[in-house]
Amino acid sequence: MAALTLDALTSLAKRRGFVFPGSEIYDGLQATYDYGPLGVELKRNVQARWWGEMVHKRADVEGVDAAILMHPTVWKASGHVDAFNDPLIDDKASKMRYRADQLVEGYIDKLRSKGKDAEADRVEKDFVAALNADDMPKALHDLIMGEQIKGPDSGAFDWTEVRQFNLMFSTHVGPVADASSKVYLRPETAQGIFVNFHTVREATRQAVPFGIAQIGKAFRNEIVARQFIFRMREFEQMEMQYFVKPGEQMEAFEAWREARWNWHLGNGIRAEHLRWHEHEKLAHYADAAQDIQYKFPFGWNEIEGIHSRTDYDLSRHQEYSGKNLQYFDPHTNEKYIPYVVETSVGLDRTVLMLLCEAYDEDTLGGESRSVLRFHPRLAPIKAAVFPLVKKDGMPEIGHKIEQALRDEGLTVFYDEKGSIGKRYRRMDEAGTPVCVTVDSETLENGTVTVRDRDTLRQERIAQDRVGEYVRDAIKMWTRA
Ligand code: GAP
User: Fold this and answer.
1) How far is the CA of 123 from the centre of ligand 1 (A)?
2) Pick from 141, 149, 363, 357: nearest CA to 268
């Protein structure tokens, strides 16, 4: 199999209608993407599986769907107004803007790729110290100057100072755009859970420990948005906050780590393509933080964070709102602010990971084919139906099978044009696990040919067993 490049994947994603640049007829709007017919099905399948596992299968997790626009004090309390910043630096020669920390990381990677490990270790040590410095922007600037790091695009060494840049998008509510009407587009969905902690608990009569889950859009004015849908300015998160008694957070943290790892495996991700990354520097309010990283074509990168956030968020909201957010524990008669274990995964990043994981190339009858080996439960189209020829009543039988599958809630593609080989190939590229062909034998004995995307095995089954066959393919699938 050829090594996957992000370019090959981006091109397939557009060609087949998974994901493409937003507003493209106006030359696009940087770092915004639209999901096409296949992409939206894939995305909805991922959402549905996350919701199914996180909410429906558990008695101790409830769902919410909070507003994107929230009271501006929410973001003061959460710390985002003061601290949700990236350090940016401009190359005066090329007028390109970079994240100063990523510039240094790139420089360290370059040293390593040249086998200069000792030098890379030294810079990395200084880098960690700069990130922890009281005046982090100045420390990063000093490091860039000291190492004489050049602009990646211009090759020049002509930098501005490092400045902090707040990533929140702001807008105004109502007709007057002044300071009092300023609100933010939420940069994470989590705060919509924290502010509703009491209301949800009272409405559902849940007792601690319990969780609240949410799927929704988040917005960040990323300085450098790149790598396709890996880093976007508008994206979707699937987050869950699990509220526990103080002292019981580590047990919950470990249980959620295991659950979340297994969720990714259940999506067909190979374990060797996943790893844990433990945060060396914890946020001041966290007492444990680990990320799940995936081996993307451009390197290991985060897809999900599992963080133990103590009582920081609820305490801050109690302080800023003046409302009592303590929990009264009926078993111990104690009052406390619950601690929180958070799981936070990016939906778009999960889609990108699934596309990378599924992408494969092989040779079939001397021709190379691209195939997306999605877990059938996530595949956008579950089955394709092809009449071999457009006559002798085959299309009518094909449409009957198609409708029967649709009535069972399965997504189906019907195609009667072109050679059967080409039709199969098109479905391989869409990741469709089962193709059903109606041929002359169907007219004689009511059987059809079913073809498996991965094994390429073909067998004949009765046409009224197609739905069962597809459901079995979804249930029994294992990665070859
Ligand atoms: N509430 C915690 C939180 O928001 P985060 O690490 O900033 O934590 C969680 O974000 C997840 O959201 C990330 O692991 C990633 O999958 C996704 N994410 C964050 N920024 C993103 C962006 N600009 N584009 C796409 N996904 C993003």
Assistant:
1) 27
2) 357
Q: Give the pLDDT confidence score for residue 2 in this predicted structure.
A: 58
Note whether 321 and 198 are within 8 A (CB). no
- Nearest CA, atom 20, ligand 1: 231
**CA 25 and chain centroid, separation:** 26
236 closest CA partner among 74, 9, 42: 42
Distance CA 402, CA 398 (A): 6
Closest CA to 343 of 237, 246, 250: 237
> What's the CA gap between 467 and 25, in Å, rounded?
40
Q: Give the largest Cα separation in the chain, rounded.
A: 81
The secondary structure of the chain in percent helix, strand, coil, rounded to multiples of 5, reads 40, 25, 35
Asked if 215 and 348 touch (Cβ cutoff 8 Å), the reply is: no
pLDDT score of 72: 96
Distances in Å between the alpha carbon of 277 and those of 49, 104, 111, 346, 355?
24, 19, 22, 16, 22
Q: 291 C-alpha vs ligand 1 centroid, how far in Å?
A: 11
**Cα-to-chain-centroid distance, residue 356:** 12
Q: What is the position in ligand 1's atom list of the atom closest to the CA of 222?
A: 23
Task: Decide: helix, strand or coil at residue 283.
Answer: coil
Atom of ligand 1 nearest to the CA of 231: 24
Q: How far is the CA of 186 from the centre of ligand 1 (A)?
A: 12
Mutate to test the pocket of ligand 1, among 349, 351, 353 (most ligand atoms within 8 A of CB): 349
Going by CA atoms, what residue is nearest to atom 10 of ligand 1?
Answer: 344
Q: pLDDT tens digit string along 222-279?
A: 987 778 999 999 999 999 999 999 999 999 999 999 999 999 999 999 999 999 999 8
Q: Kindly report the number of other CB atoms within 10 A of residue 361's CB atom.
A: 13
What phi, psi does 468 have (nearest 5°)? Answer: -60, -40
Return the structure tokens found at 230.
Answer: 């890996």
Is residue 241 in contact with ligand 1, taking CB distance under 6 Å?
A: no
pLDDT tens-place string over residues 345-361: 999 999 999 999 999 99
